[in-house]
From TrEMBL, chain A:
This is Putative effector of murein hydrolase LrgA, UPF0299 family. It is found in: Cell membrane. One of its GO terms (cellular component) is plasma membrane. It is a multi-pass membrane protein. It comes from Methylobacterium gossipiicola. The chain crosses the membrane at residues 29-46, 67-86, 98-122. Keywords: Cell membrane, Hydrolase, Membrane, Transmembrane, Transmembrane helix. Its main location: membrane. Pfam families: LrgA. The keyword tRNA-binding does not apply. One of its GO terms (molecular function) is hydrolase activity.
UniProtKB/TrEMBL annotation, chain B:
It is a multi-pass membrane protein. This is TIGR00659 family protein. One of its GO terms (cellular component) is membrane. It comes from Methylobacterium gossipiicola. The keyword Cytoplasm does not apply. Pfam families: LrgB. Keywords: Membrane, Transmembrane, Transmembrane helix.
Length: 131, 238
């Protein structure tokens, strides 16, 4: 677990550094996710070399179960920030009603537009293949 | 009496108490969510936040004190985001096959999120700096605060709106998708991550791993695209 966690933290660390150095508007952890993805691709492409040079927890599935453990409780991780938001609800007091309407309508529209586009394009491409 | 007080003073100063309160609130919330068969309205994030906020209110605990304990949980958001690479890699074949629908949905979703918020804000007569803080509401908090600040908005307001959007999306995504008869878990997850960032992604993972993987991709891509598009969209505001 420690070796896996170290790799995940290292990916985030490099991601944070890259985000700051390049000034890209992408969070460091998202760059870290891309880096970890590259690691996984390379590890499995050169599986034999990887098994020889990498620590065992990184190749025997322990790394994956550490990651799965983190993601299984993703909801929990939003609680501290969320509790802070409750204390700052005063900032929306002035335009509260309008903001509530905007957030609700815009979120619903965005959800629908995104999912429908996805489904339509997927269906359209499949009919294209069949022809 | 003074003895009790001394215990309270000790506890309220260590990270232990507030870390425990956070985990306990989540455990209770998760129990409620499970008892309702993971009904969308019984969103564990929302319940846990409400419980924690209530405890803070009743004990009159300043948020800074609470955060000293809760920061250990908060910190894990970063590593958890990195860990989104695992489902992404596991379902890479599915993801690669859906590249075209994903990119189309990303573009449409990102533009709709921005323009709907800006247009509605304009129509309802919301002041400009508030509209600007609304623009990045579908993006993960850190990036949204950065965007709002660059465009002359209020980062704190942006963070509050991001969280409200996340909650709204996390609660509404399942009923809305059922209403629209969208059964494709890839599309459902992608929409949840795009419109409601991490909270939507957390919801997606509760429903289905494939949905979670697609939500994670949408979260990352939309942070990038919104940062590009928001300045352009805001320039249309008078």
């Amino acid at each position: 677990m420690i070796v896996g966690l170290t790799l995940i933290l290292a990916a985030q660390l490099v991601g944070e550094v890259l985000a700051r150095v390049t000034g890209l508007p992408v969070p460091g952890p998202v760059i870290g996710m891309a880096l970890l993805l590259i690691f996984l691709v390379l590890r499995d492409r050169y599986a034999r070399t990887a098994a020889r040079i990498l620590p065992k927890p990184l190749v025997d599935g322990q790394l994956e179960s550490t990651g799965r453990g983190l993601l299984a409780n993703l909801s929990l991780l939003f609680v501290p920030a969320g509790a802070g938001i409750v204390g700052r609800l005063d900032v929306i007091a002035v335009n509260g009603m309008a903001l509530a309407v905007i957030v609700a309508v815009s979120t619903l529209t965005t959800l629908a537009a995104t999912a429908l586009t996805f489904v339509w394009v997927a269906r359209w491409l499949r009919t294209g293949e069949e022809r | 009496m003074t003895g009790d007080f001394a215990v309270w003073v000790y506890l309220s100063r260590t990270p232990l108490l507030w870390l425990t309160v956070t985990l306990l609130a989540y455990a209770v919330a998760d129990r409620i969510a499970t008892a309702t068969n993971r009904h969308p309205v019984a969103n564990p994030v929302l319940i846990a936040i409400a419980l924690t906020a209530a405890v803070l209110e009743v004990t009159r605990t300043p948020y800074a004190t609470y955060f000293e304990g809760a920061q250990f949980v908060h910190f894990l958001l970063g590593p958890a985001t990195v860990a989104l690479a695992f489902p992404l890699y596991e379902y890479r074949a599915t993801v690669l096959r859906a590249l075209a629908p994903m990119l189309a949905a990303l573009l449409v979703g990102s533009v709709v999120a921005l323009t709907s918020a800006l247009t509605l804000g304009h129509l309802l007569g919301v002041p400009r700096e508030v509209i600007v803080s609304l623009a990045p509401k579908s993006v993960t908090t850190g990036v949204a605060m950065g965007i709002a600040q660059t465009l002359g908005g209020d980062p704190t307001l942006a963070a509050v709106l991001v969280m409200l959007t996340g909650m709204t999306g996390g609660i509404l995504v399942t009923p809305l998708m059922n209403l629209l008869r969208i059964r494709d878990m890839r599309a459902r997850g992608f929409a949840a991550g795009l419109a409601a960032h991490g909270v939507g992604t957390a919801r997606a993972f509760q429903v289905d791993v494939v949905a979670g993987a697609f939500a994670g991709i949408a979260l990352g891509l939309n942070a990038f695209l919104t940062a590009m598009l928001a300045p352009i969209a805001v320039s249309f505001l008078k």
